[in-house]
Write a structure and sequence with these properties.
Layout (H helix, E strand, L loop, with lengths): L2 H13 L4 H16 L17 E3 L5 E3 H5 L4 E5 L6 H12 L1 H5 L4 E6 L3 H11 L4 E4 L4 H5 L3 E3 L2 H9 L4 H4 L6 E3 L2 E5 L5 E6 L9 H9 L3
Parallel strand pairs: 3-4, 4-5
Antiparallel strand pairs: 1-2, 3-8, 6-7, 8-9
Helix pairs in contact: 1-4
């Protein structure tokens, strides 16, 4: 089963468990985000990848320059450990981590959550790649991915107990679009996946194909 087939199956099961009024708020927010043009503002192939220096789940500082010194970088943005679709996607990337590293690339994931949350996520899913904290989504903004949740959806997330005020260190409404970038050693973006629909993610097979296509 492909990653997106797994995500779709999860969505079909999940939506039956969500009350209709909450489902309507979620659906309306999704439609508005899709129509906002946010995805079109994301960086695309040929752009220079913005540099970053961010804390890892284990407290180290990780920079894009440092990652690129070892080879190409697969950079993926996710919403947080509270998002089940993100967890499914990260587990799929972990299953393909060896395939990424044997191609000489480094995999790194970014979210706006605090390092303690990233550490818990890494330990729970036994992730062996760096999970970084982009507090305030400053890096996501540079990549054209950051957006603010509408108030009614933010209220729903509060009621569901996601506590984004705490896990995002005082930035509860700003999240990144789901996105993955393949960046070559020169710092140029060579492949991009971005979607306003958080139930869709880059297929690991497509990421590997993009790495194979690098010069």
């Amino acid at each position: 089963m492909t990653l997106n087939a797994e995500l779709r199956a999860f969505y079909e099961t999940r939506r039956q468990q969500i009350p209709a009024e909450i489902r309507e708020i979620m659906n309306r927010a999704g439609r508005d985000l899709a129509e906002s043009g946010q995805a079109d503002r994301a960086l695309t192939v040929g752009a220079r990848a913005p540099r970053f220096s961010l804390p890892s789940a284990t407290g180290r500082t990780v920079t894009l320059e440092g990652l690129l010194a070892d080879g190409p970088v697969v950079l993926t943005f996710y919403r947080g450990a509270w998002c089940p679709y993100c967890n499914i996607a990260l587990r799929a990337l972990q299953q393909h981590h060896h395939d990424i590293t044997v191609r000489g690339a480094r995999l790194v994931a970014l979210s706006p959550q605090i390092p303690d949350e990233s550490l818990s996520l890494s330990e729970k899913h036994e992730l062996t790649f760096d999970v970084l904290s982009d507090i305030g989504s400053d890096t996501a903004k540079q990549y054209g991915l950051a957006f603010d949740l509408p108030e009614d959806l933010a209220a729903v997330y509060d009621k569901l107990g996601f506590d984004l005020q705490r896990v995002n260190a005082g930035h509860p409404r700003t999240l990144p679009l789901p996105a993955t970038f393949v960046i070559d050693r020169d710092g140029t973006i060579r492949w991009v996946f971005v979607d306003t629909d958080y139930t869709k993610r880059a297929e690991p097979a497509d990421i590997l194909a993009a790495l194979d296509a690098l010069d």
